[in-house]
Amino acid sequence: ALFGNLTDRLADTFKNLRGKGKLSPADIDGTVREIRRALLEADVALEVVKDFTGRVRDRALGDEVSKSLNPAQQVVQIVNDELVAILGGEARRIQFAKTGPTVIMLAGLQGAGKTTLAGKLAKWLKSEGHTPMLVAADLQRPNAVTQLQVVGEQAGVAVYAPEPGNGKGDPVRVAKDAIKEANRKQYDVVIVDTAGRLGIDTEMMKQAANIRKAVDPDEVLFVIDAMIGQDAVTTARAFQDGVDFTGVVLSKLDGDTRGGAALSVASVTGRPILFASTGESLDDFEPFYPDRMASRILDLGDILTLIEQAQKNFDEEESLKIAEKFATDTFTLEDFLVQMQQLKNMGSIKNMLGMLPGAKGMREQLENFDESEITRTEAIIQSMTLQERRVPKLLNGSRRVRIARGSGTTVTEVNGLVNRFEQAAKMMKTVARGGTPQIPGMGPI
Ligand code: GDP
Asked: May I ask the CATH class of domain 303-432?
């Protein structure tokens, strides 16, 4: 799972601080050492780790912690802040051109996920009301053009590909012609897929730089495979020197990745991460928010993304109702049941559950999550009375036994569901009030 190991390691580190009324400098040094080790193990670049742990240590030794009522939680807060900072701070969105089509060029190594990303980005832009066009300027890889056409068809967007014999072999010309075509046909975003090589290669860089010069893109997005590990920094620097880019897209964040690339690239290049790609399907794609990613790494849950995904999965009326319920803290287990029943896509369910706070403990179960799991959760909720679904507080011991018996599950399973639901509800309230959610079980900040 996403940052699974790092999350576990950090959670263990923080657990050691739990319940300490005061932190000695030795406690802080020990904690910082643990964090350093966890980050290095997650393949975060050494320079980034040094910087990060230095700042965490300075702040942890300072006033804000020693004067705090709950120093452990304060340390978590500092780590959270600094994680947000190395992930780029404020979220940044695509900057659209004021006149004419917005041109977005994609660059990155072969296999980084550019072509897939082109389709994801186009589909997402379309859902946001744009009319994007994809351009096949990767004329190197034999079936790259066909692959882009397939992806374009799945996304339901236009694809500009060179006619056989016309401009073939000249990606610069293809890209320029495509922009003329976009102007003619009123496409408002042009996404140019370019060729990558397996490794850093001067020829490829030159070609990408030439395309960039010819089409003067509004954004150049560097797509990087999150699984590339320690090579992330070298690769990113090479692309920055060779082509330069305005933003980063992290792909394959769904893999069993250690996530180091994600945590290194933004701070090393000074370029913001704009999107994250989390699977092979065109819907596995999210705008990137440094603060939400930090929350996920620290297992604080990612309620905002959860809400947005719910909105994408349901029709407008339903999603308005859900958003309203989140905001007013009236989202009940009954609503949860309805949502689950409406979700047809297993991937979305896994994603949604994974974003609930405290999902760490459930991670293994999530990996093996299958239809029967949904059936069981459904059965548990269905065995509750309407009252219980609306006011989970009513669920005392004997009611839980009754529900477990009624649903053919165990009291542990019932407890698990209710706990997670209550934690999520609490966080939604905090988030709705503009606060930072806390680590479950660590007490208030
Ligand atoms: P390109 O050479 O940069 O255009 O890379 P492709 O778009 O062809 O992607 C290379 C491989 O990675 C393909 O098999 C994709 O299906 C896969 N891929 C792309 N993005 C993701 C992702 O976010 N997650 C996973 N698991 N696979 C991905």
From this structure: mainly alpha
CA of 255 to the centre of ligand 1 (A): 11
Every domain of the chain and the residues it spans: 4-86, 102-297, 303-432
Burial of 62 by CB count in 10 Å (0-12 exposed, 13-18 middle, 19+ buried)?
Answer: exposed
Report the residue among 149, 253, 280, 350 best suited for mutation to probe ligand 1: largest number of ligand atoms under 8 A from its CB: 280
Instruction: Say if residues 168 and 139 touch (Cβ distance below 8 Å).
Output: yes
Residues belonging to the binding site for GTP are 108-115, 193-197, 251-254
Ligand 1 center from residue 158 Cα (angstroms): 20
Of the candidates 162, 114, 119, the residue with the CA atom closest to the CA atom of residue 137: 162
ipTM above 0.85, yes or no: yes
Asked if pLDDT for residue 41 goes beyond 60, the answer is yes
What is the distance between the alpha carbons of residues 61 and 183, in angstroms, rounded to a whole number? Answer: 58
- The top-level CATH class assigned to 4-86 is mainly alpha
Q: Assign domain 102-297 to its CATH architecture.
A: 3-Layer(aba) Sandwich (3.40)
* Ligand 1 close to Cβ of residue 115 (< 6 A): yes
Q: What is the pLDDT of residues 346-390, one digit of tens each?
A: 555 666 666 666 655 555 555 555 566 777 888 999 999 988 988
257 lines ligand 1 (CB under 6 A): no
Contact 114 CB / ligand 1 (< 6 Å) = yes
- Mean pLDDT of all residues in 170-186: 93
Q: What is the mean pLDDT of residues 159-179?
A: 81
Q: Whose CA is nearest to atom 9 of ligand 1?
A: 113
Q: List strand residue ranges (DSSP E) for 32-157, in order.
A: 102-107, 132-137
Condensed to tens digits (0 to 9), the pLDDT of residues 123-143 reads 999 999 999 999 999 887 778
Q: Is the CB of 196 under 6 A from ligand 1?
A: yes
Q: What is the mean pLDDT of the chain?
A: 83
3-class DSSP state of 220: strand
